[in-house]
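[step 3/7] inverse_fold.run input=structure_tokens len=79
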């Protein structure tokens, strides 16, 4: 069971990293307005589902990570 959980954690982490990089590329290339992805994801809910609290926290974390990366790019670009 531990191996399955570790595999699942690795898969989820890989998906999160891939998603963050894809979202950043879309913003950098001007294909998506900065902040638009955040605004689309933050309101998502899973009413009555046992996963709602964790899923909501995870989406908020992803949006926060994307915003931090955006701020870092802005800072490194000098503005």
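[step 3/7] decode complete -> sequence:
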């Amino acid at each position: 069971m531990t191996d399955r959980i570790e595999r699942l954690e690795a898969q989820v982490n890989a998906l999160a990293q891939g998603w963050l990089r894809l979202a950043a590329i879309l913003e950098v290339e001007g294909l998506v307005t900065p902040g638009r992805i955040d605004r689309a994801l933050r309101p998502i809910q899973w009413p009555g589902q046992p996963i709602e609290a964790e899923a909501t926290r995870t989406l908020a974390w992803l949006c926060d990570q994307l915003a931090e990366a955006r701020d870092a790019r802005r800072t490194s670009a000098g503005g």
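[step 4/7] annotate
Residues 26 and 63 are 14 Å apart (CA to CA).
The chain has one domain: 2-76.
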